[in-house]
Each structure stands twice: as C-alpha cells, then as structure tokens.
Write a structure and sequence with these properties.
235 residues; mainly alpha; globular
Length: 235
Amino acid sequence: MTNKYKALSALLSYPTAELKAAASDIRAVLLDDIPGPIWALHKIDKLIDEIETLDLYELQERYVFLFDRTRSLSLHLFEHVHGESRDRGQAMVDLKTLYAEGGLEIGATELPDFLPLFLEYLSTRPDDQASTLLNEPLSVIVALKERLEKRKTPYAAVFRVLEAIAGHSPSQSELNDLRKAPDDDPNDLEALDAAWEDQPVTFGPSEEACPKVSQMLDRMNDGETPNIIARTARG
C-alpha cells in the first residue's frame, strides 16, 4: 500500500480548509514516495504552495473554472469516453456493482468514475496492482494532462506524475480519439451552454454497455485484479 495515490487524490479534490491545513503533510508524502521528472515534482510543489498560501475562495473558484465549468477537463473519467449518453449510466451501474462485489459501498450522490475517488482506492492496493489499474484510464489521464498544460496550470503536473507512475504508454488510438474532441474555452459561455445541452445521464440499465468501458472493466477483472474505487471528500 502507498500514500502517494491518496496525496494525489487530495490535490485533485475540491479545495477546503482541511486541504489547506494538510498541504505540508501532502508535500512530505510526495517528496518521499513519488516518481516522475524533476520539473513535474517542482510544479506539484508549486501547486501545494498555492494551496497553502492563496485565499480559499480563490482556490475554489479556480478549481470550479477548470474542472467543473470546463467539460473537456472533467475529472469524471467516463465523461471523456461517451459524454452524458445512456451508455455512461450503464457503465456507472457496472462500476457500482463491481465495488459492491469488492465490499465497497459508495454514497447515492457519488459518481464512481470521479478520478480522486479512483486514486484514493489505489492507495489501498499494493503498488503493482495499483499501477495495473492506473493504466486502464491512462489515455484519459494523458489527454487531460495535455489540455491542462495548454492552460499552463500547475494541476497538469499531477497528471504528468500519474503518467510516470503508470509506467506505460497509453493506447495511441484511444488518445488520438480524445485529442479530436473539442477543448472547451471556459470564457466562451455560449459555447459552454451548448456543450452541456446533451441528454442527462441515466443511471438505470440499458440494453448494452459501452464497449470501451466494458473492455476496461473486463481487464480489471482479469487475473482476479482487485476492483476499483474508494471514496474522497468533496466540499
């Protein structure tokens, strides 16, 4: 088991007073137990500095601007696979079933594909199992890293380090598909409104599951690999 995933999960969670208070502890964990290029570690340290020193309201506003207001930066993994379609609802049901089979119950309002939730679960697994699971959504993680780097935000370093921990290259076909998706401009309110006018996600069963997600879940089950995801706090 390792605390590095829990620390990275915290950095990707909605900023709270508790997160600010824990910033120095998060820094200590990451400096002691994380691989990755030096520049990425420096940028993560910059992010931690900002969490420690910036006004909480400013931190929360920036987080919402990036991850909640900008659909192409959503921290919900399945959002990037098939958006708000009914297939995503079925994928959520499938994930929640996997969690229940592994003894994990999540709250009714918690979405299983939330990346900080996924990372917190990885913190409970041995390193080899955690890195195997991390490779499953690696294409999405790398695509998010590239989009965040374009915005020159220190949050990009978290994704760069996750890529280094995974230790593999993402599927190029999946990554190329993700690169073709529109990268929202959070300042273009009209375009954002249009982007969010899809059908709402449905969390009931559909006639068939999303093929990409089904393949990912099948790989997670191969070789009795532990099921994913635990919980994280969101203010």
